[in-house]
Amino acid sequence: MLDSQSYDFAQLVLKYYSPKVTKQTKEKQVVVEDIPIENTEKMDSKTKYSIDYNKFQQYLENPNKPEIKTKEEQEMDDLIKSNPYLSQMACTHDRRKEREIYDKSTDEKLENADYFKKEGNKKFQEGNYEQASYFYQKALLHFDYTFPDTPEEEKKFQQLQEQCNNNMAQCKFMQQKYEDALNYCYQVLKQNPNNQKAIFRKAKIYLAQREFEKCEETLSLLQPADPDVQVLKGQLK
Length: 237
Hints:
Elements: H1 4-17, E1 21-24, E2 29-32, H2 45-48, H3 53-61, H4 71-82, H5 84-90, H6 96-103, H7 106-125, H8 129-143, H9 151-174, H10 178-191, H11 196-208, H12 212-219, H13 227-236
Antiparallel strand pairs: 1-2
Helix pairs in contact: 1-4, 4-5, 7-8, 7-9, 8-9, 9-10, 9-11, 10-11, 11-12, 11-13, 12-13
């Protein structure tokens, strides 16, 4: 199943930034459809669910947003702030790359995500954590525009997304960016609560932050006989 935050984000983008004419009045927001409802079934899926990227880009880049935000602006802000890689995406100013991703097939998106993950792995092995993070971030961006249609695609989607978030958490840990690392661990565990790597990494982060009680509590979720768990427990004494 698609990550709930990514799904909600995509739905908001389609809802508020699809090719509809939105008119603002002082009293309320009025939405006027360009195309009659009865004709929408005749549209191909890419047209029916296409996004007005210029409008979406204006929302992300406008430095003079009113203090009182519209409902859709507030919903979008809340989703972006709650998700680390959506937050990073919102900081970029060129939406052409996202459009290019959106237009690709699901197979192409997953292949590209896997390629960027492997490039990130190479940089991580070289000790270049900044470059590794860059490639993992490029991989993660693909998942926000990927909607699997088959069980096989869904399985590959889930596996790749989990791996990239886990790898990104390790990069941030190595850079001593502990809060970012925790956020990526959270993304993994939201998708797979039993992911042992993410749980162990959370414990290591808490230890580095001297949050000893949280570290011990997190370690209790792992197999006590695991040698790595024993080493970490030893550091708590």
